[in-house]
Structures are given as structure tokens and as C-alpha cells.
Amino acid sequence: MKDNNCAYCMRGELLDKFGIYVCDLSVSTLVFFKEQSHPGRCIVAYKDHVSEIVDISVEERNAFFADVDRAAKAIHEVFKPDKLNYGAYGDTGCHLHVHLVPKYRDGFEWGGVFEMNPEKTFLSDEEYAEKITALRKAVEKY
Predict the structure, then answer these.
(1) Rounded distance, CA 115 to CA 87, Å?
(2) For the chain, percent helix, then strand, then coil, each to nearest 5?
């Protein structure tokens, strides 16, 4: 099931506003967040347009969290954060997804809650391509 107004469902222009498609996982999609105040920040979005974790079966939930784990391992490998924070929000964008937010002891917002979209740090096209290529390679290992 897809929603024509949902960035995670439709990708393209809607997703391009805030993220870059990285790859498909077993039951979800890995998206690189364009705003990189937290180097390596990504989103794992479930394959179907469901709002809540309770809207999927136990097997689908386990596969979804296995995808989150796989993405987390890749982020740790490529970006080497001191801590990876996980956030599941969706008051207005009702599509099941998890934010993976790397935190660094000497970096932005260490010890605090991350801003959803601080719009402070953006990369060049070449830097995005380099980071996404590294993530894709790392994800394939897990």
C-alpha cells in the first residue's frame, strides 16, 4: 500500500526535499538525511505506508528492526559515532520510520536531544555521493 503524498512511498521530489535514497533493505528503505549536523544521519522507512508498529505482524516487525540493526552497523562502520540515537516520530508524516542519529562526544548536541531539521550542515553533491557509496558497501556486509 502506498500514499501518493508520502515521501517514503513516492520518493522522487518529495523525498529529495530532505533525503537521498541509499538502498532497499529486506522490508524497508535506507535514506540518507540531507541535513548532516550529525554526520551519518539516516532514516529507515518501512516498505508499506503504515503508521504504527502495531500495524504490522510480529514477523514484519522483527524484519524491520533487523533492517534498523543492519543500517546501524553500517553507520557505525562508516561514520564511527560515539553513540547512535534512535527516534521514531510521525505526528504529521504517518509512515513508520526510524531516525538513526549519530552523536559524537565533541560534536553538535552531545548530551542533548537532536533537532529534527536544524538546517545547519549540508554537503556537496560529491560528498553526498561518497558517503552514500560507503554506506551501500557497508550495508551489503550485514
Answers:
(1) 11
(2) 35, 20, 45
CB crowding 43-67: b at 16 or more within 10 Å, else e: bbbbbbbbeeeeebeeebbebbbeb
Sign of torsion over alpha carbons 42, 48, 50, 53: negative
DSSP 8-state assignment for residue 15 = H
Q: Domain residues of the chain, as ranges?
A: 7-141
**Check: CATH 3.40.30.10 for 7-141?**
no
The amino acid that residue 10 corresponds to is M
Whole-angstrom Cα distance, residue 134 to residue 118? 24
- The total of other beta-carbon atoms located within 10 Å of residue 23's CB is 15
| pLDDT tens column, 5-48 | 889 899 889 999 999 999 999 999 999 999 999 999 999 999 99
